Amino acid sequence: MVEPNGIYHLTPRGNDGRTIFTEDADRVEFLLLLDSVARQRRWTVLGYCLMGNHLHLLVQVPELGLSEGMQRLLSGYAQWWNGKYERFGHVFLNRFPSKPVRSSTHLLETARYIDLNPVRAGLKFRPEQWTWSSYRAHIGLSHPLPFLANARFLELFGPTPDKARKAYRQFVRDGARRCQTPP
User: Fold this and answer.
1) Residue 58 and residue 111: Cα distance in Å, rounded?
2) E runs forming strands in the chain
3) CATH architecture for segment(s) 6-99
4) 167 vs 65: CA distance, rounded Å
5) Quick one: CA torsion of 96, 11, 154, 125, rounded to 10 degrees?
């Protein structure tokens, strides 16, 4: 059950393990759709990571409508993807996994888990090397995309943006050393 103002870790996957992001243009298209849905649904996006055959979103929803927003996001991307690659049928598994975030500790661990996903998958040695996640914006290496509530995210880690960025960078480094499991 979706709770108003609840925070959720969403992990849609490609149908049958299918690659859903073949090239950078695919990821750009998905992020444009995410921006549109987040604005329309008034979602607070705290984190994201686009991998090859799945993605992670950390989203707070102000009211009911998580499923409707995800349906618009995933079906919109699937229609675009099928058109581009001259395919048809399901791009994503039927139901996207969603886990409610139940505490502030769980929120921090989930954000770290999402931003470390490319490292755990062996795609990069450090999370800042992966362009397609929120990590670079969280630590100040790139400007946040319009839908990313980066200022709100940084408030979780410190009283000023500089202190928060430094604290989050260290928090992620500590997690990378421990090779943590999913929250």
Assistant:
1) 7
2) 6-10, 44-50, 55-61, 98-100
3) 2-Layer Sandwich (3.30)
4) 33
5) -170
Beta bridge partners of residue 47, listed in sequence order: 58
> d(Cα 138, Cα 157) in Å, to the nearest integer?
10
pLDDT digits (tens, 9 = 90+) for 128-161: 999 999 999 999 999 999 999 999 999 999 999 9
Assigned token pair, 10: 């969403």
Could you tell me where in the chain the CATH 3.30.70.1290 domains are found? Answer: 6-99
DSSP class of residue 55 equals E
Beta carbons within 8 Å of 170's beta carbon, 6+ residues apart: none
Mean pLDDT of 44-55: 97
List of residues 6+ apart from 156 with CB closer than 8 A: 104, 107, 108, 111, 164
Dihedral (CA of 139, 140, 144, 150) sign: positive
Nearest 5°: CA angle at 99, between 36 and 156?
75
- Spatial contact of 73 and 15, defined as CB atoms under 8 Å apart: no
pTM assigned to the model = 0.92
